[in-house]
Write a structure and sequence with these properties.
Helix 4 packs across helix 7. The protein has a four-stranded parallel sheet with strand order 1-2-4-3, with helices on both faces. By secondary structure, it is an alpha/beta fold. The chain has eight helices and four strands; from the N terminus they run αβααβααβαβαα. 34% of the residues lie in helices and 13% in strands.
Length: 178
Amino acid sequence: MAADVRAPGRWLSHGYLGCLGTGMPFAIAAKVAHPSRPVVCLVGDGSVGLNFAEFDTMVRHRLPIVTVVNNDRLWGMSAHGQDLIFGAGRRVVTELAPTRYDLAAAGFGCHAEYVERPEDLRPALERALAAGRPACVNVMTDPSVIAPITIAMVGEATASNVMGTEERVQLPYYTDLE
């Protein structure tokens, strides 16, 4: 992901790895700190599941935060890390269902948008921002697209350096830890 941040105090992130599930709590903090500014939270489908009830918090406290869910039906970093290290077809426990997070968020009282085509994203975001209440924009994305940061973290790991003659465990996202 890339962001064009044009002024200080406009971007809040946990960094490139770790702190899974912090997006929605960070968005709530940003909105409370700056109630007059629009707040957009970008999360993955795995991450949003960790704090999904924060939609209820947003509704109860009337915090019009727009949460955009990148729904690729994967624990993407793990799935792609496994593909890069172990080869295609050797993933374990990384697939997710094509969950309708928009409908679940609507159950809390949020504005809901479901996006399947790129050209529908902008109008969905405009409606969500104009809704004046918490919103969930569930964007179905291509699960085969690998984030550049995942490639960078895996580095030059290959099946040959993972399955060497020594008894070692190669962890995805980390280079050789000798």
